[in-house]
Amino acid sequence: MRIGLLTSGGDCPGLNAVIRSTVLHGVKSYGDEFLGLRGGWRGLIEADYTELTRHDVRGIAREGGTILGTSRTHPYNHPGGGPEGIARQMKRHGIDAVIAIGGEGTLAGAKRLADDGLPIVGVPKTIDNDLKATDYTFGFDTAISIATDAMDRLRTTGESHHRCMVAEVMGRHVGWIALHSGMAAGAHAILIPEQKVDVDQICEWVDQVHSRGRSPLVVVAEGFIPEGAEEALAAKGQEADGRPRLGGIGEFITAQIEERTGVETRNTTLGHIQRGGNPTGYDRVLATRFGMKALDLAHEAAWGHMASLRGTEIVKVDLSEAIDGLKEVPAERYEEAKILFGR
After folding, report:
1. 333 found inside a domain
2. pTM for the predicted model, two decimal places
3. What is the phi/psi pair of residue 133, to 5°?
């Protein structure tokens, strides 16, 4: 088979490990040929590609980002896109199948194209861990490790100055990064999009910790909406695709804590640091296994399906399961963490 690989949407540690394992497995096990499609769906639509050999993927599993580049190009809205246009390009360049590596938006596009008759399978990726139908996505563990390390550093400077430290992490709609990194760092309050919390309650947690001579650490996801507010803060305008560019909730919480408690408070926004750098060992292994499974799915002609982690096994699931809403933090998981807040 001649297979096209693309990475679409936000970048993520582990993408290169998927590319590597797919190419190596295909070449060694099936005698496949591979094309790397540059810039996500755009590369497929515009036939912007590069040949991928064993030599091209040597040693890339440890590297962050993606050697193919990425974009948020929509496979149906881009000029020349849609099933007919993409099918023509695939036929013209001898592409027998496409493996699309991406998050909810990418996989929704892959599902739609597969339903329209194109030979496409998927690989789930997102640092937010918000995709259904898989227990974990690669990139999440790396983001947690980076955020936890940053919070450990914030706590040392906070304790030196007897300050409250606020750490804003990624999480537009779900709070998995905030929950896991906050618990790992021993945060005294964790604020996530799924749970509205009154500012007075946040300040009470801070006061409880500060009164014991400790320096409070508050972790807040960028999409957190305080009790009484209607929507997440988006002080930085809009993304190119029209979505609000979230940011500013950490500064808001910082100002409220300092004003209401009198405790000196500082804010740090981790931002894209969470996306960058080399993937953890866990993410490299998970991404490698996903890539190998996706290649097998292509040879099974399991179009419209993706690789998924269930327990410790990599299995096949229908893409419709993955894009059926977001995987939110369950209320019981937040209540579990909440036991450790304040006091």
Report:
1. no
2. 0.92
3. 75, 5
Residues 148, 267, single domain; the answer is: yes
Structural domain of 161: 142-276
Residue 298 corresponds to which tokens in the numbers above? 């292509």
Let me know if residue 48 belongs to a domain: yes
Tell me, yes or no, whether 205 and 244 share the same domain.
yes
- The answer to the question of whether 238 is labelled as a binding residue is no
Distance CA 185, CA 85 (A): 49
Judge whether 269 is annotated as a binding position: no
Burial of 212 (0-12, 13-18, 19+ CB in 10 A): exposed
Judge if 283 and 271 occupy the same domain. Answer: no
Q: Is 42 annotated as a binding residue?
A: no
Residue 292 belongs to what H/E stretch? helix 281-299
Cβ neighbour number for residue 310 with a 10 Å cutoff:
11
Same domain as 195, residue 166: yes
| Catalytic machinery residues | 128
Residue 193 · residue 232 · CB < 8 Å: yes
Residue 175 assigned ligand-binding role: no
**274 labeled binding residue:** yes
Tally of structural domains, the chain: 2
Tens-digit pLDDT string for the chain (343 aa)? 999 999 999 899 999 999 999 999 999 999 999 999 999 999 999 999 999 999 999 999 999 999 999 999 999 999 999 999 999 999 999 999 999 999 999 999 999 999 999 999 999 999 999 999 999 999 999 999 999 999 999 999 999 999 999 999 999 999 999 999 999 999 999 999 999 999 999 999 999 999 999 999 999 999 999 988 877 776 666 666 666 667 789 999 999 999 999 999 999 999 999 998 999 999 999 999 999 999 999 999 999 999 999 999 999 999 999 999 999 999 999 999 999 999 7
